[in-house]
């Protein structure tokens, strides 16, 4: 049995795996330190996790016929060497598999892509801002390698960008989508980041600018 370290479990979601009812397994640990991390409790990579993997499998066994799939999210799922085994075990129960990843380990991503039905790949920003956003040197180069793997794999996917104009400006965001399109990306989502006192509202007209610039990219905009 895989020894995946689990920080938490959402028993039912209809939004994290497009078109499927799924459970979400939150994997413990991430080597990056994004300022806006949505799950800081999942960052520390050490320790056994909050939920034994065997308990997650027992839960899933009781949901056969009720759920379509399982989402491996985090944290960063590809951090853990036992992810492929965990995915095999989930598939053996009859579930489809989705992966949410920031793409920091292209070699490990390549190893699990054959086990995955859908990938949500975070694209955190233009190359020149990547290391500042992740607080990790060399991060952007690795993500572009992962991006190319996902596009070439034929696996369904969505690239997602959490955007805050304090991180990079609107023109850079538009250009980022152009860079992704040049890499073959055809599915992209914008996730504006809000803060207390500053709601996450996309700028007026950005949908029109994006659609006009890249009509061949399907965009999910808020
Ligand atoms: S990659 Fe994701 S989990 Fe890791 S620090 Fe950044 S936002 Fe948090």
UniProtKB/TrEMBL annotation:
Gene Ontology terms for molecular function: lyase activity
EC number: 4.3.99.3
Keyword Iron-sulfur: yes
Keywords: 4Fe-4S, Iron, Iron-sulfur, Lyase, Metal-binding, S-adenosyl-L-methionine
Uppermost EC category: lyase
Domain Radical SAM core stretches: 16-222
Keyword Metal-binding: yes
Cofactor: [4Fe-4S] cluster
Name of the molecule in the record: 7-carboxy-7-deazaguanine synthase
Source organism (scientific name): Cupriavidus laharis
């Amino acid at each position: 049995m895989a020894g995946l370290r689990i920080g938490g479990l959402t028993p039912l979601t209809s939004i994290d795996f497009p078109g499927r009812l799924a459970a979400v397994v939150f994997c413990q640990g991430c080597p990056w330190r994004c300022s806006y991390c949505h799950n800081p409790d999942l960052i520390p990579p050490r320790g056994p996790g909050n939920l034994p993997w065997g308990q997650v499998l027992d839960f899933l066994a009781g949901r056969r016929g009720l759920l379509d799939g399982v989402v491996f999210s985090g944290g960063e799922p590809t951090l853990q060497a036992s992810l492929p085994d965990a995915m095999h075990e989930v598939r053996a129960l009859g579930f489809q598999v989705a992966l949410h990843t920031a793409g920091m380990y292209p070699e490990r991503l390549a190893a699990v892509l054959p086990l995955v039905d859908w990938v949500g790949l975070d694209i955190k920003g233009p190359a020149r801002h990547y290391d500042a956003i992740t607080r990790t040197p060399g991060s952007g180069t690795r993500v572009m390698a992962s991006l190319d793997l996902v596009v070439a794999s034929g696996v369904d996917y969505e690239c997602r960008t959490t955007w805050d104009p304090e991180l990079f400006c609107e023109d850079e965001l538009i250009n980022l989508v152009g860079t992704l399109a040049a890499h073959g990306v055809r599915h992209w989502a914008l996730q504006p980041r809000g803060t207390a006192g500053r709601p996450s509202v996309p700028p007026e007209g950005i949908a029109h600018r994006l659609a006009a610039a890249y009509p061949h990219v399907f965009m999910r905009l808020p």
